Amino acid sequence: MERLSDWYDHPEYYEAIFGTDTEREMDFLLEVSRRYGTGGKQLLEPACGAGRFVAEAARRGYQIVGYDISEKMLAHARRRLTPAQRRRVRLHQARMEEFYQSELEGKVDLAFNLVSTFRYLDSEKAALAHLEGTRRLLNPEGVYVLGFHLTDYEREKAEHERWVERLGKDTVVCNTHEGVPDPRLRRSAMRNRLRITGPGKDLLIETHWYFRTYDLAQTRRLFRRAGLQVLAVYDFDYQVDAPRKRGEIRLDSIFVLQPVKNKNPSPSGRGTG
Ligand SMILES: C[S@@+](CC[C@H](N)C(=O)[O-])C[C@H]1O[C@@H](n2cnc3c(N)ncnc32)[C@H](O)[C@@H]1O
């Protein structure tokens, strides 16, 4: 068995697992944008990875800017685009805590970031920088749809998820393991194993990283600091007609965020949120 150590160096296997529901997720995102935001054509995907959403948005006629830290993921994203899609897509290598483009300021109708990617930001400062930066790019009536798994600090056991998918003649088995959260360091140790088997192939890609942890109160405090209000919360089942009821607490959460309306603009004319 061959062993490798970073699943984002192997976009095709990453997407074999995460790319199976892209059309349904895109339907959900666009409908959320119509209901809570402007429904407009300018999209932004922070940490766009191998570009499954970028390609799908462009296929549907939307303009989209995507960025990611991983050049290998971006290369896969570029390769998959048809010439017609390419005209609607801008891709950049950038970090979530730093990305900014003056020409996008105030223009983004819908930004989105699902599957807990936000939790890669490993400090409050980095998370705040990302949210404030994204807020500045949003149209004041636009929305940022941010999906991530909240942490139950009472949990004493590791969590485990397993998926199996086919990729051509190969079978991809994905095992993700989240360790017990450390409430002081605000992080959980993560491990992902992708085992790929097929004709002449036996590969194990094992990736280790930390995810930052958030309970609901920590999340809401951060959003407030970033000048973002929560318009609705959904589960990971992407049912646009079934937003979570007030007071209902579940861990898998998709927040629909919008810039807080600035009632007292600062002298420079730029709000502080
Ligand atoms: C779980 S994947 C999600 C990819 C894509 N959004 C999707 O849904 O398929 C997480 C992505 O985040 C990227 N990433 C991790 N930390 C990042 C950071 N600080 N800034 C930008 N991208 C980051 C990784 O390179 C990877 O492509």
Brief summary of the model shown:
Helix content is 25%, strand content 34%. It has 273 residues and is an alpha/beta fold. The termini are far apart.
Rg, Å, rounded: 19 Å
Number of strands: 12
Hetero ligands:
S-adenosylmethionine
Mean pLDDT: 94
Cα-to-Cα separation, first versus last residue:
53 Å
Q: Regarding quaternary structure, how should these chains be classified?
A: single chain
Separate helix tally = 7
Low-confidence stretches: 265-273
What's the architecture of the largest domain, going by CATH?
A: 3-Layer(aba) Sandwich
Principal-axis shape equals globular
Strand content: 25-35%
- CATH class label of the largest domain: Alpha Beta
- Main beta sheet: 7 strands, mixed
Might you state the CATH topology name of the largest domain? Rossmann fold
Protein name: Class I SAM-dependent methyltransferase
GO molecular function: methyltransferase activity
Domain Methyltransferase: 44-142
GO biological process, one term: methylation
